[in-house]
Design a protein that fits this description.
Helix 4 (about 150-170) crosses helix 5 (about 185-200). The strands form four sheets. A five-stranded antiparallel beta sheet has the order 6-5-9-2-13. Strands 10, 11, 12 and 14 form a four-stranded antiparallel beta sheet that branches. It has helices spanning about 1-5, 65-70, 135-145, 150-170, 185-200, 220-235, 235-250, 255-280, and strands at about 10, 20-25, 30, 35-40, 45-50, 50-55, 60-65, 85-90, 90-95, 100-105, 110-115, 115-130, 150, 205-215. It is an alpha+beta fold and about 325 residues long. It is rod-shaped. The protein contains eight helices and 14 strands. Helices cover about 35% and strands about 25% of the residues.
């Protein structure tokens, strides 16, 4: 029975395929007469003999090894299967797709910053893309000593040097420490070039590197957000009005008893007075004979410019005492 078992044809294929596997090596087995090679979409099959490439097959399909594969091998093209002998060769299956990997800094990176002796602690996250590009480099550096290689192996290697590269490209050319997101494209471009040089010797190529976001300490982020809010509003008085309006609309000023009601009333009165002041400043001067004239011929305003109260005939505001002429 043992004799006949050795004569059974075998199927050369990527066994237990995983989507995150970069390559898989079919080895240490004898290829028998009648064996078949199966290449699935997204795979290349590389025949190796003593670590040397014999042939690369890139079209997916089901092939008879004796008639459709051996004739195209470099040094094994004249191999003939005997009755009791087979061909010893390794077959390396390579995943040809482009891989996308998420990355994130495990610890905060202390970037040198003015006024901060310990540096600015910053975290970042994003994605990078890579694929196998050079089979000779891949076999010489990795596949020659490993039977399989997965995405996590590449991710571990990338993240081990990523902190240094982030620090290098963030501090380069005096980037604005408080607005790194606006420089994310340039920083990512520089990191991609460095990572590509790091992996090119192993037959890999970095095809893309993206920075999704930079994360500051909470107190620094609050300061950046507040500064951006003031910059968007521009007019502090207008900002105060918007804040009060938002507070009343959201109901944050409701409830809480008499103190809360009084606070809301005071804010409403202040807003009304400010609006009246603006109306008075924009209103053209009254020149008709029916306008209230003060002694000396000077025009007296109908509303107090300080608090907005109607003035009547008085020379001083009846509400705040502001002199009207």
């Amino acid at each position: 029975m043992g004799f006949f078992r050795n004569q059974l044809a075998n199927v050369v294929e990527w066994e237990e395929f995983r989507d995150d596997m970069i390559f898989y090596k079919w080895n240490n087995r004898e290829i028998k007469k009648g064996s078949r090679l199966i290449i699935r979409p997204g795979q290349d099959a590389i025949f190796l003999n003593n670590g040397r490439i014999e042939g690369i097959f890139q079209d997916d399909g089901d092939y008879d090894i004796e008639s459709e594969i051996i004739p195209f091998l470099s040094t094994l093209k004249g191999f003939k299967f005997g009755f009791n002998s087979g061909m010893r060769a390794e077959v390396l299956f390579v995943n040809t797709k482009e891989f996308t990997v998420r990355w994130g800094t495990k610890h905060a990176i202390n970037i040198p910053a003015a006024g901060m002796p310990g540096g600015m602690p910053i975290r970042a996250n994003g994605t990078f893309n890579f694929k196998v590009q050079d089979y000779i480099g891949l076999i010489d550096k990795i596949a020659g000593v490993k039977d399989q290689y997965v995405v996590e192996d590449i991710k571990t290697r990338i993240t081990s040097i990523l902190d240094q590269l982030l620090m290098k490209w963030i501090t380069r050319e005096g980037k604005d420490m408080f607005n790194l997101q606006s420089n994310a494209f340039d920083i990512a471009k520089g990191i991609k070039e460095d990572l590509d040089m790091e992996l090119i010797g192993d037959g890999m190529a970095i095809t893309g590197f993206q920075i999704m976001s930079f994360n500051y300490p909470q107190e620094v982020q609050d300061m950046i957000t507040k500064n951006a809010s003031y910059g968007m509003v521009g007019d502090v008085n207008k900002y105060q009005q918007i804040s009060m309006t938002d507070g009343m609309a959201s109901g944050k000023m409701s409830g809480g008893g008499a103190a809360s009601d009084m606070a809301g009333m005071m804010m409403g009165m202040n807003m009304a007075n400010q609006m009246m002041n603006q109306m008075n400043q924009n209103q053209p001067a009254q020149t008709s004979a029916s306008s209230n004239n003060a002694p000396g011929g000077e025009d007296k305003p109908n509303f107090c410019p300080n608090c907005g109260t109607k003035t009547g005939e008085a020379n001083f505001c009846p509400n705040c005492g502001h002199k009207l002429i």
